[in-house]
Write a structure and sequence with these properties.
alpha+beta; 34% helix; single chain; four-stranded antiparallel beta sheet
Length: 151
């Protein structure tokens, strides 16, 4: 069972994996890959969207095509629950995604900024947030186009 309370069957998991790999794939192509009818795939997608499993679709842009700097910013938080800190950060324009992680760090932010100086400024702003104990930045040098997610 996932955080929405809905249990995904094997076909749902395969469908989600296919869409994560290529959200523009046609319903007919998905139906062929899943050995289902196009109507059955459309119904599954509609249910997954309605139940909040599929929350949206986006374009993944290669970091080297977009001007600026993409980075991973790792946070140690001194406040629980962590969402008290991370949820408001989603509204920051530089923050593309936030992941809760296990280990000695609490969260990883995927950020996009105009320059190395802008990344430094962002790290300073994050350090100033009450409840943020430490901030570590890692610049993304390139995307490994030869290593896509497996469907």
């Amino acid at each position: 069972m996932n955080r929405t309370g809905m249990t995904l069957d094997e076909t749902d998991r395969k469908l989600v994996a296919l869409l994560r790999h290529d959200a523009r794939r046609t319903t007919t192509s998905l139906a062929r890959a899943l050995n289902l009818s196009r109507t059955a795939v459309q119904a599954r997608i509609a249910r997954l969207e309605r139940d909040g499993i599929i929350q949206g679709y986006s374009a993944m842009i290669a970091p080297d095509v977009v001007a600026g700097v993409q980075a991973l910013v790792t946070l140690c938080l001194a406040v629980r629950p962590c969402r008290r800190i991370t949820d408001p950060l989603l509204s920051w324009p530089e923050v593309e995604r936030i992941y809760a992680i296990a280990g000695d760090r609490d969260a990883v932010l995927v950020v996009s900024v105009a320059s190395p100086q802008a990344l430094s400024d962002l790290a300073d702003r994050l350090r100033a947030v009450e409840g943020v104990a430490s901030v570590e930045t890692t610049v993304i040098l390139s995307a490994r186009a030869g290593c896509p997610e497996k469907p």
